[in-house]
Amino acid sequence: MKKIQMVDLKGQYERIKDRIDASVLDVIDSTAFINGPEVHNFQKELEAYLDIKHVIPCANGTDALQIAMMGLGLKPGDEVITADFTFAATVEVIALLQLTPVLVDVEQDSFNIDPDAIRKAITPNTKAIVPVHLFGQAANMDAIMAIAEEHDLYVIEDNAQGIGSSYKFADGKTAKTGTIGHVSSTSFFPSKNLGCYGDGGAIFTNDDELAHTIRGIVNHGMYKRYHHDVVGVNSRLDSIQATILRAKLPNLDIYNNARREAARKYNKALESITNIITPKVKGNNCGTTEDTICDTCNCHVFHQYTLRVINTDRDQLAAHLNEKGIPCGVYYPIPLHSQKAYRDDRYDEEDFMVTNQLIKEVISLPMHTELDDDQIDFITNTIINFITK
Ligand SMILES: *Cc1c(COP(=O)(O)O)cnc(C)c1O
C-alpha cells in the first residue's frame, strides 16, 4: 500500500508533470514573472469556468477576503457576521480592518453558518455576512441572501474550501459557490481543491464598479500609474502560480469527482457504525437525500471529509490513527469566540452550543484526489477496530 497522506500533492503532480514543467519553464523563459499574460489568461479561464464577470487574482485567500471588505467600503465599527466554526483567516481580516466581528453558531449537520443565528445577531450596525462554504459544502444561500436583502447587508462568500461546488436554489436555479453573494474570495493554497505550488488567491464579483475598485486596491490603490486614489495593498498572483493553475483548472471537476468518490467509499464503510456520524450532504434542494452523495451535481466538493465521533475519545482515536500511519486532522479544535484574540464580553456560551460540541467530536480523514481503495479500506478498518474494540 502507498504511504497514506492527508493530501497527496506529489501523486497529483506526477499525472500532469509534463504540462506543468513545460509551462513553468515557459514563464521563466519569458521573464514575465509579475502581471504577465499567464495571469490574465488564468483570470479569463476562471471567469468562464465560474460563469462570473470578474475574477481579480491576488496573493492569497486571506488577502482576498480583506480586499473584498476594503472594496465594499466597510468602516471601523461596522459589524460583520461570520461563523464561529471556521479557519481564523475569516475573522482575522474583519478585526484587522477594525470592523467588529460578530461570531455566530453553525448547523450541526452541515457545519455551516446557521441562518437563525444570523438573524438573532443582526443590529443596526450590521453591514455584512460572511458565509464560509465549510469543508466544500455550500452554506444555506437561499436563507442568507434573503436575510441580506431584508436587512440591506452585503454577502461576502468565503469560498476557499468550496471552489467548484454548486448550489441549487429553492427555485431550481443553480450557481457555483462564490458567484452568489456580492463578492467572494478564494484561496489557491496548495492543499485547497484548486491549489497552486505556493500562495495564491482571488476575488470574484459580478459588480463592474466593485471590480474596478478592487483592481485598484490590489495594486497600491492605483487606477492610473503613480496616481494613488485610495489606500491599497500589494497583493498579486505571480505568473508561475497562474500557469500552474491554468494547467490544473481543466481538471478541477475531475479532482472534485475523485474527492466525492472517496467520500462515498468512506461513507459506505462507516455510516452504519455506532458512534460515528458521517458527513451529511444536505443537498440544498438538489434532490439529494441526506447520507447519499449526489452523482449529478457538485453540491459537496469535500475539501475535508469530516466525521463526528460520539461517546468516543476523539483525541485517542486520532492518536491511534497516527500510530497506524494514518494522518488525520481536527478542523477546528477551538471555537473562534474562545480564541484569545477574538474573545468578547458580548458573547454568551449558550449561543455557541453546536460549535462547542463539534470541536470535541470532529475528525477529518485523509482527503485528496489520489486515494485508492486499499488505503480507504485500511483507514476505515482501523477506525472501526478502534471504535468497536
Ligand atoms: C485556507 C482558507 C483561507 C485562507 O487562505 P490563504 O490562501 O491560506 O490565505 C480563508 N478561509 C478559509 C475558510 C480557508 O480554508
UniProtKB/TrEMBL annotation:
Task: List, in alphabetical order, the Gene Ontology terms for molecular function in this entry.
Answer: transaminase activity
Keyword Transferase annotated: yes
Key word Protein biosynthesis present in the record? Answer: no
| Family annotation (SUPFAM superfamilies) | PLP-dependent transferases
Per UniProt, which keywords does this protein have?
Aminotransferase, Pyridoxal phosphate, Transferase
**Coiled coil segments of this chain:** none
Pfam families recorded for this chain? DegT_DnrJ_EryC1 (PF01041)
Domain of life, source organism: Bacteria
Q: Which family does it belong to?
A: Belongs to the DegT/DnrJ/EryC1 family.
Record's protein name: DegT/DnrJ/EryC1/StrS family aminotransferase
What is the originating organism of this protein?
Aquimarina addita
